[in-house]
Amino acid sequence: MKKMQLSYKYINLIITVVLFFALFAAGSVLYNGFFSTQVLLNMLIDNAFLIITAIGMTFVLIIGGIDISVGSVIALVCMLSAYLLEIQHLSALIVIPLMLLMGFLFGIVQGSFIHFFTIQPFIVTLAGMFLARGLCYVISIDTIMITNSFYQFIATYRIPLPFDNYISISVMIALALVAAALYLNNYTKFGRAVYAIGGNAQSAMLMGLPVGRTKVLVYGLSGFCSALSGVVFSFYMLSGYGLHAMGLEMDAIASAVIGGTPLTGGVGFITGTVFGVLIQGVIQTLIMFQGTLSSWWTKIAVAFLLCLFIVLQRIVVSRKERTKSIS
Amino acid sequence: MIEMKDGHFYGVTIDILNRAAPLMLLAIGMTLVIATKGIDISVGSMIAISGAVVASLIGGKLEYVDGVKTLITLVPMPVAIITALLVTTLLGMWNGLLISKVGIQPIVATLILLVAGRGIAQLITQGQIITVYYKPFQFIGTGYILGLPFSLFVVGLVFGITFYAVRKTALGMFIESIGINAVASRFAGIKVSKYIFSVYAFSGLCAGLAGLIICSNVSSADGNNAGLFIELDAILAVSLGGNSLDGGRFSLVGSLIGALVIQSITTTIYALGVPPEITLVVKSIVVIIICLLQSAKFRKIVFSKWAQKRGIPSEKNAAKL
C-alpha cells in the first residue's frame, strides 16, 4: 500500500513531464522549425524569471502558505534598480546585492506577520502586494529605461552552446537556483522541516522542529527569489515600470500547481515546478507558431490545465483519505 | 457637501457613493462567500466578462440611416443585460460546483477563473475595447432617479433583498454556522454544499451587476482593465467591515461601510492631487492595521496590558485567547 501512495504522490509530476514532451512533440510534427534545441532554449530564456519566482513559490506552497506579493516585488526591484542605476548613478555591483537583500527582508517581514500575529498569508501578502506596487509609483509613474553598461552587457550577452545554440546569463542564474533549491529541498534539515511543517505544523512543532524560524525563512526565501527574479527581469526588460510583471503571482502559482504541488501543503517538487513553467512556455510557443490565435489562448489553456490538475489532485487526495479511513 | 443642480444631487458624498457602487455590490456577494469561510478571487475577471458580453451584444455600431445617426443594437438591451448576468451567475455556479461538490479549496477553485476570465473576456471582445454608444445603456452607470445616481438604487435593491434573506429567514444563520464549522453543520442537517454552491453563484451575480455598472459608466468594455484588482478591494472592504476572514459571523452593513471607506480613501487621494497610484500604499497600510487589530495574538501583546491597567476584561480577548 505504501508503494501505491508513493505513486499517487508522483502522478501529477509524471503527467506534467509526459504532457510537456507530448506538447513539444506535437509542435514538432505540426510546425516546421519547431523541433530544434534553440526553441527549447528560448523557452528557458523567455521564462527564466518565472522559473525563479515559481521556485520561491513552491517552497511557500509546500509549507502550506501562499505569497501573492511576488509579481509586485519584481516590479519594485525593476523600478528601484532602474532608479538607483540611472538617477542615483550607483554601481550595478551595489544595486544588485541591495535588491536581493531588500527582497529577502521584505519576505522576512511578511513571514513574521504571518507567523507571530497568525494573520492569514493571503491577506499579509496581499498587503505586501499593494505596498510594493504602490512604492513603484512613489518612485516614478513613468518608465525608467536602464542604460547602465553592465545591465546592457548581461542583457545582450549570449553564452554560446554547441550546434549554434545559445542561452542567456539569466538562464544560467535560473538553473543555478534550481540546483540550489533541489539541494536545499532534498538534502538539508531546512528542506525536510518545510515538508514536515506543510504536512502538519502542530506535529512538526511537537517533533521539536523550528516551526517559526522555518516559516519566516521560507517567506524570506520567496522574497529573495522574487528579488532575484526582478533582477533577471530587469535584464530582460531593461526598464523599470510600475506595471511590470502584472499578475505574475498567478502564473507562478499555476506553474507550481501544474508541476504537482498542491496548495494544501506538505507535498511539492522543484522539478515539477520547472516543468510547470516549461509547459506554459511550450503553450506560448505553440500559439506563436500557430500565428492566428490570440495570445489570450495561452491564459485559457493554462487555466484549463490548472483546472485539470487541481481536480486530479482532489481525486488523489480523496482516494488517499478513503484508504486511510479503511485502514 | 451636497447641493442640488438641475434636479440632481451633486457633491463629494454623492460622488463617493456613485463610484463605490460596483465595489459595494461585490462586497455584498463577497461577505456571504467569506462568511462560509470561502473566498472568491475571480470577481474581477467576471466583471470583465460581464462587460464584454453586454457590450458585444448591444453592439457598438453607429450608422447613418438617411443622414440621421442611428444606433444598431444587435439584441434589445434587456436581453443583453439578462444574458450578461446569466453568464456571470453560471460562472459563479462553476466556482460553487468546484468548491462544494469537487471539494477544492475556494482560493484555488476561483484562481482558475481568475486566470482564464480575462482571456475569455478578450475572446468575446476579440481583443478590442468595445465602445457602447447606445444611450439607454449609459443610464445604468450615469443616470439619475429622484436626483440620486441610478447605480445606488441597484445597490439598495440588492442589499435590501440580501439583508432580508439573511436576517429575516434562517439563511443567514445557516451561512454563519457553515463558516464556523461545516462538518458540524452537516450533521445538524444543513445542506452545506447547497448553500456554498448558492453563495458563489450569488457572488457571480453581484459581480455581473458590478460589471454592468462599470461598463456603462465608461461606456466601453475593456477586457484587460475592467475590474482589475477589484477582487482585492472587495476582500479588503469585507475585512474592513469587521468580518473575519475565517468565516462565521458577518455584517453586510459593515462590508458596505468598508467599501465606502475604500472609495473615500481613493477620492481623497484624487482630491489631494497626489498621483492616484499612491492609493495602493495607503491601502496596504490600512490592510496591515486592520489585520493587526483582527489578530488575537497582536491584541494580546498590545492591549492586554492596557486592559489590565484599566481593569477591563475584554470580552473578545477572553473569548479568543
From TrEMBL, chain A:
TM spans (from-to): 12-34, 91-109, 121-146, 166-184, 217-238, 250-283, 295-317
UniProt membrane topology term: Multi-pass membrane protein
Cell compartment(s), UniProt: Cell membrane
Keyword Transferase: no
Pfam families (UniProt xref): BPD_transp_2
InterPro entries named in the record: ABC_transp_permease
One GO MF term attached to the UniProt entry: transmembrane transporter activity
Entry keywords, A to Z: Cell membrane, Membrane, Transmembrane, Transmembrane helix
Keyword Transit peptide: no
Top-level taxon of the source organism: Bacteria
Gene Ontology CC terms: plasma membrane
Name used for this protein in its record: Monosaccharide ABC transporter membrane protein, CUT2 family
Source species: Pelosinus propionicus DSM 13327
Lineage: Bacteria, Bacillati, Bacillota, Negativicutes, Selenomonadales
Automatic annotation (TrEMBL), chain B:
Cellular compartments per GO CC: plasma membrane
Transmembrane segments: 16-34, 41-59, 71-94, 106-124, 144-166, 195-214, 226-245, 252-272, 278-296
Keywords: Cell membrane, Membrane, Transmembrane, Transmembrane helix
Signal peptide: none
CDD domains documented for this protein: TM_PBP1_transp_AraH_like (cd06579)
GO molecular function: transmembrane transporter activity
InterPro entries: ABC_transp_permease
Pfam families linked: BPD_transp_2
Predominant localisation class: membrane
Taxonomy, superkingdom: Bacteria
Coiled-coil annotated residue ranges, if any: none
Topology term for the membrane: Multi-pass membrane protein
Subcellular localization: Cell membrane
Protein name in the entry: Monosaccharide ABC transporter membrane protein, CUT2 family
Organism: Pelosinus propionicus DSM 13327
